[in-house]
Amino acid sequence: MTPVQAPPAHAEQKYLKPFYWVLLFVMGLTGFGQMPIFKRYYIADIPGLGWLADFYTTHYLHYIGAILLFGLFAYAVAVYWGLLRPRYQLTWAAHVRMGLLAAIAITGVFRVLKNLPDVLFSPGFTMAIDILHLVFMMVLMLFGVLFIVLKKGWLVER
Amino acid sequence: MSKKLTRRSFLKGSVAAACATCAAQMPLPASAKAKSGKELATLIDVRKCIGCEACVDACREANDFKYPQPQKPFPKMYPSRVKVADWSDEEGREVRDRLTPYNWLSIQWATVEIDGEETELSFPRRCMHCQNPPCADLCPWGAARKLENGITLIHSDICLGGKKCQVVCPWDIPQRQTGVGLYLDILPSLAGNGVMYKCDRCYNRIAEGEMPACIEECPEDVQVIGPREEIVAEAHRLAKEEDVYIYGETENGGTNTLYVSPVPFETLNAAIDKGPGQPHFDKVADQMAHTDNLAKAMVVAPFAGLAAAVARIYNASKKAGDDRGGAA
């Protein structure tokens, strides 16, 4: 049987990659906005950034970003396994990124569950989720910088 | 010098004397205990309150051991816009006409007209203990949380005093004291600013089967406590049979503190002093409703992503098939 020739990932490179970067930036910004720091450190005083001091606004945007990110994750996993895998393989940097993104998503889901009415977690567990969510995001940012320096992308051709 | 005996001071003295005779702590009646997993709510009947402040005294006495003991001098904080919130001097600790870190319950007064007669009403104000409290949901640190019995609690040993809970609270209830708490051990100059304090509905007393102090010591039985559905049913009965108005049943999606009043709450709201530490009686929409709906959308999002992926794979396969057909 002739193996199916996978197409190049042009569409993903052209549209999804910038979308992913913008989304990650917004998630980082609104995520840090959950802490009362943007007003204290004058960032919300910058014209056009006043919304960063509105906890409800940053919270809605963080949720909307999470919805888009979950959709994007499902799309990326399915397209890779269903279409691109014969042509491309994941780099070790991609595995690190996926692990961290999964950790961020899982801790984020627990945080969303905690915010639902009638869902109660212990203070220790809640604090662990909060801290881990923040730590995983910061580690992802550090690795993101490292991978840019090392020029390590997600996919390499087989 | 003769000191004029006001109605208020007379009532305060009488009630204090009466309370002093009640040495034994009153147990939480069986009817007031929530069944497992049920939330307890309180019903405050504005008509019964005489403004004697016995509840204020009881609250201060029962919770005195929880009050902040700040370290001075306070660490210098940066940037300079970060202000110290200090209620710890003698004068600050004595403030009773508003909520402070040392006064978790205060009495509000309103002069309204009932049946053409000018009437002075008084009523205790404190944390509403929301069913889905934004302070607990949005606390970035897990310091504020809701208990199974409907109490919203701020852990003073965890709180960093960022005041986010006050900002997102529809009634601006939690109050900050600088110079105390965990932030002193982390980055006291750069992050945090003390601890937020508010009514915890005497969670420790309730855990031991006792009544909250403000309810126990009230000489007029202004407040009752019980499972929320029973409290709501009682409020509805009063509204139907005694023509009173209800506040708290639906405010912010529902709270575990309900008020009944002989005048509409719009009238009461217009007649009270409002401001820092003096909560309003405005209508309040459910602050967390939008995010609760967005949480549901998070469940659907991966399926939408999968559908888009299937479309992408189908189109790519079709194009590959067309190309092969064209080449043949």
Protein described:
- The complex is a heterodimer of chains A (158) and B (328).
- Chain A contains four helices and two strands.
- Chain A has 158 residues and is mainly alpha-helical.
- Chain A folds into two domains: 9-86, no CATH class; 89-158.
- Chain A is globular.
- With 328 residues, chain B is α+β, with helices and mostly antiparallel strands.
- Chain B has a single domain (25-293), classed as Alpha-Beta Plaits.
- Helix content of chain B is 34%, strand content 15%.
- A four-stranded mixed β-sheet of chain B has the order 8-1-10-9, covered by helices on one side.
- The relative contact order of chain B is 0.17.
- The model of chain B is unreliable at 1-24 (pLDDT under 50).
Named at the architecture level, the CATH assignment of chain B is: 2-Layer Sandwich
Give the strand line-up of the largest sheet of chain B: 8-1-10-9
Element-by-element helix/strand order of chain B: HEHHEEHEEHEEHHEHEEHH
Structural class designation of chain B:
alpha+beta
Mean of pLDDT of chain A: 91
Strand content of chain B: 5-15%
Percentage of β-strand residues of chain A: under 5%
Radius of gyration of chain A: 18 Å
Give the largest interface: A-B, 45 and 48 residues
> Count the strands of chain A?
2
Major sheet size, sense and barrel closure of chain A: 2 strands, antiparallel
Domains of chain B (count): 1
In the CATH hierarchy, the third-tier topology of chain B is known as Alpha-Beta Plaits
What number of structural domains do the residues of chain A give?
A: 2
Major sheet of chain A: order of its strands? Answer: 1-2
